[in-house]
Amino acid sequence: MIAPGVNILTWPRDAALTSPPDWIPAAAKSALMTNAYNMDNFGGVIHDLANGKEFTPFVCGAGHVDPNRSLDSGLVCDLQVGDYISFHCTISYSPLQIAVFVKDLAVDCSEKEMASLGDLNYPSISVVFDPHNKVVTYMRTVKNVGSTQAGEVSYEVEVSPPPAECRHQCEP
């Protein structure tokens, strides 16, 4: 299924039987987004039927969602309500506007702002470069929800870099 956002999807009916019991909605969304793909049944990139161009994240978001694959995600970005509150404080929402989402009129943004909007622990990253500062640093913290029965688990980072004038570095 391809949709304007994974927030319109529901978690698979049998997911409660097979997914970790401590997954919160943000972990489920992260699993859906990070396991989506943009390849068709023949191994080629999906194209937009309207204009014939290849799908990019700016056209289709995370890609074609595969709920079954998401149940064995491995790593997910986890977010709590406080993270979303901090994000909304950072983009200058008022406590009254934030209350629409969290049903709490006592939101105090004085100590909740993030250093950067890019610091929201969200499973995708979009970078806006400042002409005066050529270095942008964003961090993501992931939680291992994959099988650890085999002992130590190892993952590889894969980055789809932007144009050649941009460099990226992943640590650890």
Notes on the protein architecture:
Helix content is 23%, strand content 3%. Among the domains are: 68 residues, no CATH class; 39 residues, no CATH class. The two termini are 33 Å apart. It has 172 residues and is mainly α.
Number of strands: 2
- Stretches with pLDDT under 50, minimum 5 residues: none
Beta-strand fraction estimate: under 5%
State the end-to-end distance: 33 Å
Can you count the helices? 6
In short:
The protein has six helices and two strands; from the N terminus they run ααααβααβ. The chain is mostly helical. Among the domains are: 6-73, no CATH class; 81-119, no CATH class.
Task: Please give a handful of descriptors for the protein shown.
172 residues, mainly alpha, two-stranded antiparallel ribbon, Subtilisin-like_FN3
Write the layout of secondary structure elements.
Layout (H helix, E strand, L loop, with lengths): L14 H4 L6 H10 L22 H4 L6 H4 L4 E3 L3 H10 L4 H8 L39 E3 L28
Antiparallel strand pairs: 1-2
